[in-house]
Amino acid sequence: MRDLLALVDRPEVISFAGGLPAPELFDVDGWRAAFDAALTGPAARRHLQYAATEGDLRLRGHLAARMTAWGLPSQAGDVLVTTGSQQGLTLVAAALLEPGATVVVEEPTYLAALQCFGMAGARVVAVASDADGVDPDALAEVFARERPALLYLVPTFANPTGKTLSARRRERVAELAERYGVWIVEDDPYGELRYRGDALAPVASYGERVVFLGSLSKIGAPGLRLGWVRTPSALRAALVIAKQAADLHTSTIDQAAAAHYLAVADLDGHVARLRVAYRERRDTMLGLLPQVLPAGATWTDPDGGMFVWVRLPGEVDTAAVLPVALAHDVAFVPGAPFFAVRADRATLRLSFSSSTPERIVEGMRRLGVALGSGSSALPSTALPTALPTVLSAGNRT
Ligand code: PMP
């Protein structure tokens, strides 16, 4: 898959594959000013020095205030700054998972979380979900049967489906975690990117057994590699020790710049602009899907985030469709790798965030041609003969 997706980087390809924020919307001037401020005056040398594992106290205070505003009352002392929220996942796995421990996930779910649990030697079990997210009755059964160490959820605008766990279910899921003594990891990099409806309080606001992971990647910039863990007090020491063993601390200068940025920049105003731009991109993509996808295809209608999840009709394998799409200079991610247990190969993920509406229109047109719009399945003869030589064998299995 990695080799195949390398073909996506050709400039002529319109890619709906990567879950990237739009680079033209990065606040370059704001971040330049923030780094300049962090490297000016008497504190500059401290910002280039080793620092505390827990992170920059000012930054932790700003992040705690943001979570408090989302309905999750937090203090600076609750926050452990991480090198992206991806590191938060690694630290939680290190602190909570013995080899052979059981992790419960929704299917499909975030690919790199599955990799992280796999590397920790965990056994991954799937729980049923529907349009409102994970099914609490099914979850109660899985908890009783499997006695897992943790439940991993992306409850708001999930990667890859775009789905959101309803408010009622958030409460029930948090209760079940308390009752069965299971830790929940609430991974929330997309929560602020809402295009419709009212914000929901985090799952962590309903119970004590939730580790909330946040990120500046989607509202600031992913190249900063700044995320955080809101640490329940029972796990705090273990997570700090795991972080110390991993990288001592997250970049001091990056944290100082972010602390300055959060103090002086209008991040809420920036997020509001992101919402307007991404809403238009989502609407453009969703508006075209009925024309582009074959009859019988289904797709999600996300209230926020970056992704639409599609299921093609019939027995088609989207991994075999991707080379056809690439031959038409358009890309998506085949769905199978997002499944932990039983893959639905007819699925695929489309990201609308990093293409302008004009590019989305053209990319959708190309996708329609690649899918032979109107046909219910792709004949294997549609594969261009040149492409299989470009693709490694691993990508075609
Ligand atoms: N969790 C989910 C669900 C994601 O989609 C991503 C990024 N694609 C991450 C975590 C990692 O984000 P970060 O850049 O903060 O490490």
Describe the protein's architecture and organization.
By secondary structure, the protein is an alpha/beta fold. It has two domains: 2-25 and 269-395, Aspartate Aminotransferase, domain 1 (Alpha-Beta Complex), CATH 3.90.1150; 28-264, 3-Layer(aba) Sandwich (Aspartate Aminotransferase, domain 2). Helix content is 41%, strand content 14%. It has 14 helices and 15 strands. The protein has helices at 2-6, 28-38, 57-69, 84-96, 111-119, 136-146, 167-180, 233-247, 252-264, 267-292, 318-327, 357-370, 387-390, 393-396, and strands spanning 14-15, 79-82, 102-106, 123-127, 129-130, 133-134, 150-153, 183-187, 210-215, 227-230, 298-299, 307-311, 330-331, 333-334, 347-351. The longest helix has 26 residues, at 267-292. The structure holds 4'-deoxy-4'-aminopyridoxal-5'-phosphate. 4'-deoxy-4'-aminopyridoxal-5'-phosphate binds next to α4.
